[in-house]
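Worked problem 6 (solution included).
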Amino acid sequence: MTFLNMAFTFLDLKSHLSTIHDLNKVSWVLNWDQRTMMPAKGAPVRAEQLATLQRVAHEKFTADETGRMLEDLRAYEASQPYDSDEASLIRVARQDYDKARRVPSDLVAEMRRATSLASTAWAEARKKSDFALFLPHLEKVVELKHRYIECFDKTDTPYDVLLDDYEPGMKTAEVKAVFDELKQDLVPLIAAIANSKREIDTACLRGHFPADQQRAFCIKVIEHFGFNADSWRLDPTVHPFASNSCTSDIRLTTRYHEDDFATGLFGSMHECGHGLYENGVSPALERTPLCRGTSLGIHESQSRLWENLVGRSRPFWKFFYPQLQAAFPAQFGNVAAETFYAAINKVQPSLIRVEADEATYNLHIILRFELEQEIIAGQIALKDVPEAWNARMKAYLGVDVPNDAQGVLQDIHWSSGLFGYFPTYSLGNIVSCQIWEKVQAALPNLSEQFERGEFMPLREWLRDHMHCHGRKFTPPELLHRLVGGPINVKPYVQYLQGKYGELYGL
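Solution. The predicted structure is:
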């Protein structure tokens, strides 16, 4: 095949993949609608709609035609620079194709149908705090996950197959080694904080905070990060998430507790971090398999960076706290800035993962990581998961779980079939601090910029060095480009020790 013919074949492949990308993105929008606006009785038919879209997209992607084009383009791929859009698109599409071909379209559709129904059942079970209502759906989801695992070659542990969907190439043993290293420093730090004589009062975070006023303040904050009403939305939901149909249609969600100010704001900043990643992908990659973040661990590094390293910092609140006082004068008008800063950074074991402090948050993740492996390995009966959950919450965090809604039903992930996702949150915590070190070296006046309400230099640095690449590089490749090496726990531990050492006088 001549070079010219290969160039035309590449355009054909790109058009073919764009159609598949469109189908997948339509599915994402329908899923967003289901979790934000859809009437509850629409769930059964919505499940069929999503299953149909998933089946059609999968069949079109795994068709022999796709394989022929990818094979015909091997020489063309080799002729292009590794980091070019062309070579990257062919390389990533081939990897996706080889993996997708292993999974029957009927199974793909069945998984999508089951998780759509399970998500609706989970919301009802959570509302009623009744795990029994969710159990049949969880059993179905886990059964399908086992069938999915059987599509692939045997690995060291079945969980490897599921982890690879969210953190490509990473093994369960690698995650465990990272988490074991993290626990070596984290457990003593949490113990030292618990034994500290410093008492932090969080009363200012509780009171009456009308949801509409919370939303207005959340919008004000994330507008400084890059939120724009022309391309973004922020809507309420049961469990916060971020989604998008393209780089200029970013859908954020959060939830507001009118008796607790922090949940809605920090949830909004977290999801905005995800949105900034998707919004920052190069427009040249739009409607291709490259047009999204490279992994969930890397994605979570962005949400945790904006939520914690930015949103819980003193420079951030030096700018925003006077505005918060103006928005909620009765609640914060007489509260000192330092009192507020200490309150939003207090370390205290708690029930809810998404509301956990930075130090204890990772114990929530390790608990879920361990339970997921046991569930997939068949080492624990699904009916016994609430009991196992409660026992580990007591052992790891010292808290008693009062009900299923605040325990095993608090997260939507299992109803959505996202087994393998949870570890990426802690991986993201770790990676966020590795990236933060590089950002601070590149932008030495970052704190002063925050104090003036200037967050765009940070956003643009992340966009130019990271977000723009989409999936062109594997997670290790991108991390090496950013920080010069592999995942490293030390910067994260040093950050926590420094922050809480100062706050608690350790």
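Discussion: The mean pLDDT is 96.
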